[in-house]
Specification:
It comes from Aquibaculum arenosum. The protein is mainly beta. Helices cover 10% and strands 42% of the residues. The protein contains 1 helix and 6 strands, in the order E-E-E-H-E-E-E. The structure holds zinc ion. Zinc ion (ZN) binds next to loops. Zinc ion binds next to loops.
Length: 88
């Protein structure tokens, strides 16, 4: 069983987490005028990379969403970062 590092709770069993989708700066936002088909593809079609990837996960125990950078082949975890922003 894999263990993921929640930025708030520390290492926990993978059964406590849910996958939220791919993340990354290399995925451009669609244009303001986008077709229904284009928007559906943006929301639901993922690249499913092999190797190092950035993903959004949620820790169901504390309810926090965070960015997880890991290798999808070796399961090595490189980083875990909160998606919370500091209050202005
Ligand atoms: Zn947590």
């Amino acid at each position: 069983m894999q263990r993921f590092p929640c930025p708030f709770c520390g290492l926990r069993d993978e059964t406590e987490f849910h996958y939220g989708g791919e993340a990354g700066n290399d995925r451009p936002e669609p244009a303001a005028e986008v077709s229904d088909q284009g928007w559906a593809e943006y929301l639901h079609i993922e690249t499913n990379p092999k190797g190092r990837s950035r993903e959004i996960w949620v820790h169901m125990t504390c309810g926090e969403f965070f960015l997880l950078e890991r290798d999808t082949v070796t399961h090595e975890v490189f980083a875990s970062e909160s998606l919370r922003r500091a209050a202005p």
